[in-house]
C-alpha cells in the first residue's frame, strides 16, 4: 500500500512508538541562545547610554528645536485657519448647489423613470420616431433662422427707408419754416403798407371833404354870379354901344376876359374834382387790392402752418413707426434667442439619446446608473401637426414671428405635457 500523508488511526492493540532520547547538545542550544540574547541587551544598553547620556545638552537643543517647531506650527495654524474659513464658506455654497442639483437630478430621474417605465416595450420605435422628429425640428429651426435673417434684412431696409423719409421730412419742414418766415415778413410789410395807406386815406379823405365843401361853395357862387355878370355885361354893352369910348370898351373886354377866366378856373376845378374822384376810386381799388393781398398772405400763412403741422404729425408717425419697428426687432431677437435655445435643447437631447442608445436603438448598459431606460416622447404627429398646418416648407418667407413663437411655445407645451403625463 502507498504511504499517505494523513495519519492513520491507531487502535489500542497496536504497539506505541518509543519517545526519542534527548542528549546534552539539545539543551546546550537553548543555553547559548539565551546567553546571546543577554549579551545583545547589555550592548544595546551601553549604546543607548553613550548616545543619550548627556541629558542637559540634549534637553536644551531639544527645547530649542521644539520652540522653533512650535512657532512654525503656530504660523501654519493661522494660515490654515484662514484657509479653513474660506473652505468652509466654499463648502457651504457647494453644499447648497449640491442640494439644488440633487433635487433637480431627482426630479429628472423620476421623470425619466416614469418615461422609461411607460415606454419600455416599444422604446426602439419611439426612439427612431423621436430621432426623425428631432431632425425635422432641426430643419425647422434652420428654416426659422433663415426666416429671421430675412426679416431682419427687411427690417434694416425699412429702417433705412424710414430714416431717409425722416430726413426728407425734416428738409421739407425746414423749407416750410423758411417759407413761413418769408410769408410772415411779407405779411408784416403788407400790414405796414396798409397802415400807411390807411393814414394817407384818412388825410386824403379829410382834404377831399374840405375841398369838396369849398368847391360846392364856389360852384354855387359861380352859378349865382355867372348870370348876373352876363346880364350886367350885356346891359353895359347895350348902354355904351351908342357911344364910342375906347377905354370903356377895353375895360369891358378885360372884365369879359376875367369872367371867362373865372369860368375856366371853375371848369378846371370841376376837372380836378373829377380827377380827385378818380383818385379816390383808385385809392379804394388799392385798398381792396391790399386787403386781397393780405387775405392771400394770411391764407398762405395758414397753409404753411398746416403743412408745418402736417410735417410734425408725419414726423411723429415716423417716430412711432420707428419705435414699433424697434419693438418688432426686439421681439424677433427674443424669438431668435428662444429658437436658438430650443435648438440647443434638441441638440442636447439628441446627444443624450445617442450616448444612451446605440445606432440600432438598443439599450447601452451602464448609462445613468445602469437602470435608466429610454424615456417616452410624444408621437411625431403631435409635433408635426402644427408644422403641417402652417406649411413651413411651402411658404418659408411668409410665416410671421407671432406664428413662429406660438409654434415653438406649442411644441414646448406638448413636450412638457408628455413628460408630466407619460401614461396618457
TrEMBL record:
Coiled coil: 159-200, 287-335
Pfam families reported for this sequence: PV-1
Cytoplasm keyword on record: no
Record key words, sorted: Coiled coil, Membrane, Transmembrane, Transmembrane helix
Record-annotated membrane-spanning stretches: 30-52
GO BP annotations listed: positive regulation of cellular extravasation; regulation of vascular permeability
Ribosomal protein found in the keyword field: no
Protein name in the entry: PLVAP protein
Species of provenance: Anser brachyrhynchus
Amino acid at each position: 500500500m502507498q504511504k499517505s500523508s494523513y495519519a492513520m488511526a491507531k487502535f489500542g492493540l497496536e504497539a506505541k512508538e518509543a519517545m526519542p532520547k534527548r542528549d546534552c547538545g539539545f539543551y546546550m542550544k537553548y543555553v547559548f541562545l539565551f546567553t546571546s540574547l543577554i549579551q545583545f541587551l547589555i550592548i544595546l544598553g551601553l549604546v543607548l547610554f553613550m548616545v543619550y547620556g548627556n541629558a542637559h545638552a540634549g534637553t536644551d537643543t531639544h527645547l530649542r528645536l521644539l520652540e522653533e517647531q512650535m512657532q512654525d506650527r503656530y504660523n501654519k495654524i493661522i494660515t490654515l485657519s484662514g484657509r479653513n474659513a474660506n473652505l468652509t464658506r466654499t463648502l457651504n455654497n457647494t453644499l447648497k448647489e449640491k442640494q439644488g442639483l440633487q433635487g433637480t437630478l431627482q426630479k429628472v430621474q423620476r421623470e425619466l423613470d416614469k418615461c422609461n417605465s411607460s415606454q419600455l416595450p416599444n422604446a426602439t420605435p419611439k426612439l427612431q420616431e423621436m430621432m426623425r422628429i428631432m431632425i425635422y425640428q432641426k430643419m425647422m429651426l434652420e428654416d426659422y433662422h433663415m426666416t429671421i435673417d430675412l426679416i431682419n434684412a427687411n427690417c434694416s431696409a425699412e429702417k433705412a427707408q424710414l430714416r431717409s423719409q425722416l430726413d426728407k421730412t425734416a428738409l421739407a419742414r425746414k423749407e416750410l419754416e423758411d417759407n413761413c418766415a418769408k410769408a410772415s415778413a411779407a405779411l408784416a410789410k403788407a400790414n405796414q403798407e396798409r397802415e400807411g395807406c390807411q393814414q394817407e386815406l384818412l388825410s386824403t379823405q379829410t382834404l377831399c371833404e374840405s375841398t369838396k365843401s369849398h368847391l360846392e361853395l364856389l360852384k354855387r357862387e359861380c352859378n349865382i354870379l355867372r348870370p348876373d355878370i352876363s346880364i350886367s355885361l350885356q346891359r353895359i354893352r347895350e348902354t355904351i354901344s351908342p357911344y364910342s369910348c375906347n377905354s370903356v370898351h377895353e375895360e369891358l373886354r378885360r372884365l369879359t376876359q376875367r369872367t371867362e377866366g373865372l369860368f375856366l378856373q371853375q371848369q378846371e376845378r370841376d376837372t380836378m374834382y373829377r380827377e380827385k374822384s378818380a383818385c379816390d376810386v383808385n385809392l379804394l381799388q388799392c385798398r381792396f387790392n391790399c386787403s386781397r393781398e393780405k387775405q392771400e398772405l394770411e391764407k398762405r400763412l395758414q397753409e404753411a402752418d398746416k403743412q408745418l403741422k402736417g410735417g410734425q404729425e408725419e414726423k411723429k408717425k415716423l417716430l412711432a413707426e420707428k419705435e414699433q419697428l424697434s419693438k418688432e426687432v426686439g421681439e424677433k431677437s427674443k424669438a431668435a434667442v428662444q429658437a436658438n435655445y430650443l435648438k440647443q435643447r434638441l441638440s442636447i437631447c439628441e446627444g443624450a439619446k445617442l450616448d444612451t442608445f446605440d445606432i440600432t436603438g438598443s439599450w447601452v448598459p451602464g448609462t445613468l446608473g445602469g437602470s435608466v431606460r429610454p424615456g417616452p416622447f410624444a408621437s411625431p404627429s403631435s409635433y408635426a401637426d402644427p408644422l403641417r398646418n402652417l406649411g413651413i416648407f411651402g411658404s418659408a418667407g411668409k410665416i410671421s414671428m407671432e406664428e413662429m413663437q406660438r409654434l415653438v411655445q406649442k411644441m414646448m407645451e406638448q413636450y412638457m405635457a408628455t413628460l408630466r403625463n407619460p401614461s396618457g
